[in-house]
Amino acid sequence: MLLKDYEKRGLLTNLNFIEPAGPGLFAFRGDMVLVEGEVADASGRRKPPASSMRQAVVLADEGMLKFAGAFLDDLAKLGIFLERYTPDFGPGMQALFFVANIPEPMVVEEAGVSFVLIPLLDGMVWNELLDVAALEKGDLKGQTSGEKVATVVKALAGNKWKGDRLSLGEALTRTIEVELVSRGAV
């Protein structure tokens, strides 16, 4: 299974879950590694990832990605995602990323996938996906965590996305500077 392979290779961190999401489907929520950390010792253990997609929501079948969503603090990380994961894109794959440094929604057409990009400085990807899919938490009642991901992906499939349709190169010329603020214990 694709997601278990990612987990074995250390490409999934801060796992919330990997579980079945329906017949032949599997879901993941957590962070997805874009650039691995340096090797830390002779045993091959690695330092934390140099770059990752935070709060990722992924739906896959046995061998291909069906949906990917996450928070990107920089649109340039979409290029890293493409370099690393394009071979695993399934036919009709959907992608929706919340991006900190874009001023307006846009759709980036790359590798046969329409990447829907929505500006977001602060928020939880899962809650934002529910809003975009026009679902309430009650709509997911009684479902497992994996089934909830499949339900959200199905609801997103019918959306007509607003925003300019661009290549990644064109989209990168439209980024803005933002200052992300970290919160934590005081």
Distance linking N and C termini: 42 Å
Share of residues in strands:
35-45%
Helix content: 10-25%
Residue stretches low in confidence (pLDDT < 50, at least 5 long) are none
Task: Give the strand order, joined by hyphens, for the main sheet.
Answer: 1-2-3-4-5-7-6-8
**How many helices does DSSP assign?**
5
The beta-strand count equals 8
| Structure class | alpha/beta
Order of helices and strands: HEEEEHEEEHHEH
Largest sheet: 8 strands, mixed
* Overall morphology: globular
Overall average residue pLDDT = 93
Radius of gyration: 16 Å
| Number of domain units | 1
Keywords:
single chain, 186 residues, alpha/beta, eight-stranded mixed sheet, 5 helices, 23% helix
SSE map:
Blueprint: H1 2-8, E1 12-22, E2 25-35, E3 51-60, E4 65-72, H2 76-85, E5 89-99, E6 106-110, E7 113-119, H3 125-132, H4 145-156, E8 164-166, H5 168-172
Parallel strand pairs: 4-5, 5-7, 6-8
Antiparallel strand pairs: 1-2, 2-3, 3-4, 6-7
Describe this structure in words.
With 186 residues, the chain is an alpha/beta fold. It has 5 helices and 8 strands; from the N terminus they run H-E-E-E-E-H-E-E-E-H-H-E-H. It has one domain (2-172). An 8-stranded mixed sheet has the order 1-2-3-4-5-7-6-8, sandwiched between helices.
How would you summarize what this structure contains?
It is built from 5 helices and 8 strands; from the N terminus they run H-E-E-E-E-H-E-E-E-H-H-E-H.
